[in-house]
Amino acid sequence: MSNNTNSSVPHPAGDGFLQRASQYVNTFCEMALFVTMVIMTIVTILQIVFRFWFRALTWSEELTCFLLVAATFLGTAVAFKRGAHIAVTFLLNLLPTSLKRLLLLGIDAVGIIFFVVLTVYGGVLCVQESTQMATAIAISMSWVYLIFPLTGSVCILHLLAHCQEVLRGNV
After folding, report:
1. What average pLDDT is seen over the chain?
2. For residue 9, is it within any domain?
3. Residue 81 located in a structural domain
4. Alpha-carbon distance 165 to 171, whole Å?
């Protein structure tokens, strides 16, 4: 996805189902990312305070690590929607419109394949690790690994919405 597109701006052709779904899911991901970062910050501050003045919290470091992973993947999904990932577009911009669209669709297809693999194997990992428990916070690791298929699915949705925009000629 090019970093010069803003998917949240309505296009003259009207937003389709994929664009509306992508925007709705992105709004949820942004809120989840914000909440994740706030909780991670609070837990980290509590960890420091308790280590310094009281007895260390045994669960805080593990929870912070899990939240950091979740924030990373949620941030990836949000960045895909915003087109904020690094992109080298100078050659793309030199191409005629038809080739540019074809190349953008090819790039999106590669991304979709990657995220399908992430989603499928993330789901397999959730099932395989359902009996494994996190050491300090005593939850099933399936809850921790659920971030892989969830954000993979979100990125697929964003890429499909981008493909539709490319096909409409809005990108």
Report:
1. 87
2. no
3. yes
4. 6
3-class DSSP assignment, residue 170: coil
What is 73-112 written as a DSSP string? HHHHHHHHHHT-S----HHHHHS-HHHHHHHHHHHHHHHH
- Domain tally, the chain: 1
Q: pLDDT (tens digit, 9 = 90+) per residue, 25-84?
A: 999 999 999 999 999 999 999 999 998 888 888 898 999 999 999 999 999 999 989 888
List of residues 6+ apart from 25 with CB closer than 8 A: 154, 157, 158
The residue range of the domain holding 51 is 17-168
Residue 84 lies in a domain: yes
CB atoms within 10 A of CB 171: 20
- The structure's pTM equals 0.82
Q: Are 129 and 141 in contact (CB under 8 A)?
A: yes
Whether 147 maps to a domain, the answer reads yes
**How far, in Å, CA of 84 to CA of 78, rounded?**
8
Q: Measuring CA to CA, which residue among 116, 33, 115, 40 is closest to residue 75?
A: 33
